[in-house]
Amino acid sequence: MRFAESIGAASEMAVESARPDTVAPVSWPRLPERIPDLKQPWLNMFQLLWFAALLLAVVGPIGGTLHRWKAISENSALMLGSRIGLVLSHDDLTQVRFPVGSAAKAAGVRPGDDIVAIDGTPIAKVVPISERGMAQPHDATEADYALFANIVEGGDETEMQITLRSADGAQRDFRVRPGEQHIEEAARGLGLPGGFLRVFDLLHVLTYPFLLLAAWILQRRKPEDLLSSLLSLAILLTIAAEQPSATFLRFVLQVPHLLHQTIYDLGNICLLLGILLFPFGALRPRVVVALCALLPVLLFLEGNIYRLVFMLFMAAGVATLLARMHRTATTDARQQIKWALFGFTGYTMFLAVSLLSDMAKLGVGSFGTQLTLEVLGGFTLGLAFLSLQMGLLVALLRFRLYDAEVVISRSATVALVTITIGGIFAATSEAVKEITLNLLGRDAGSAPVIFAAAVATVLVEPARDRISGWSERKFQRKLVELRNDLPEVVRDLRVTAPLPELLEEVLRRIQAGVRTTSVAVLIDGKVCSTRGIAPEEVAAWAATFNPTDSSRAICHAADRTFPIRIPLQCALGDGECLGWILVGPRPDCSIPSRDEQAALSGIVDPVSRAVKIVCRRDKRELEHALAMARHERERAIKFASCP
Predict the structure, then answer these.
(1) CA-to-CA distance for 178 and 181, rounded, in angstroms?
(2) Do residue 468 and residue 592 come from a single domain?
(3) What is the pTM of this model?
């Protein structure tokens, strides 16, 4: 019977499918919720690419640095025009920014002088080579650029005659032999070793060992995780494409410029992919898919357009992270995103310093200042990339996730204090200069600097306290509430609330303030209140607890159940220990930070006083209740014995 029914049903389905007006629904492929892990054979192919990038990231910087050190010195290329002892403006080659070396200084060359002739041949008033200068009206000709060719690019060391015109209109001839001796002499005058100028712009290499370690950890922790692998590959490709590896690729391996540029672009694409998909490789919101698909456009861009598009992708990555953080309820995931955003903050801050240094170095008026800005710009560029990768690394490794707020708070404090004190120093120095100039009509010498330093020193402590308080309230709000509000709360509760209610409120606030998984209170060896852990587990732990071992320090990292143990002991009193507040680890199994431990130690006295008062009040009330019960019982017996 069942067989006949199945035959009939199959026949009906065949008839339905044969009808001409029946159209089968089209099933479109659906995008997964997250990017899949790498599978074989793709995993092996990626690892081959990764190890090749690792080899280049290790050999490239070493080979590039050695090549720069051994190559024929061309240090004058660091500062335009320094082959003849004059540092010239990129916007106008005829303008002298400052002299370099003793020859130019002995000839009386001053900042602001103009070059009007070279070897007796007059030149145009403005001869620009920068994009900004070329965009302005000028009358420079090919002949003018030909006259400056030996000054800018070098090659000929024949003595030249430079005709200069000072600000007062006076002209003088400056005879000089082009060469590297001028900038090298200036470096020696600052006490720098001879070879420093060859590698002074490579100080960012100091961050490479940390970046290589981060790349190794990211890839080896879980090779099949595409997100970690992309970020790891981004580090290696960036190191392989930047200086000094760029020198190794160009002059040693003779790599074509297009291939070199492709390596650099692929590093940026991998970095942006990792940021857009952070932290779990989720393809939500769906706009992320479109952004990831558009990333290869970087392969076809260059110059300022490239930088603009790259920064737009970075901004989109930050916006995506913020959107995910607001939609994420899981505590660990929120902390991961916070660490990533902290890395972005460090990246943005150091990159801004690097860009400002690069912009400012072309307008300063001394050799030492430009050299300092060159070093600062290169080093902060390395720190920018290191900050970004370290933030992502900590987030992916889930190592001390819950220290994000502490790190952010302290970093913000340091940055704001530095900016504030620097602003006070600069403003005070300029104000003293102006006052001295207006009142006395002469240069103030070093007095403004000394006075500004004194003012900044006096104000540094108040500024630090105010900024530190603001950053704590901004980034560690729960901990501040625990430290500031709990003493007031227990003072109110100790008057009206019973002991269980008091302890429940204390533990609730502690758990929220330090974000621990479990917390409990022992009084007289008994478990009185718990949160996040069963009383039976606390009792089993308390059976092996030795209070003597915890009397010296509150932190015991070896104990994974209750690593923090706070004695309930009044600051002013007989020293009696009423019990213990026991604090467990965080959700990522880390121990509460020192700031959190200090906050817990700060609430001990008011909580201990409240517990002591409530215990005494409960004891009196119990004694009073017992006395009343005894009195009522005696009255009942007395009335019962009456006839």
Answers:
(1) 8
(2) no
(3) 0.67
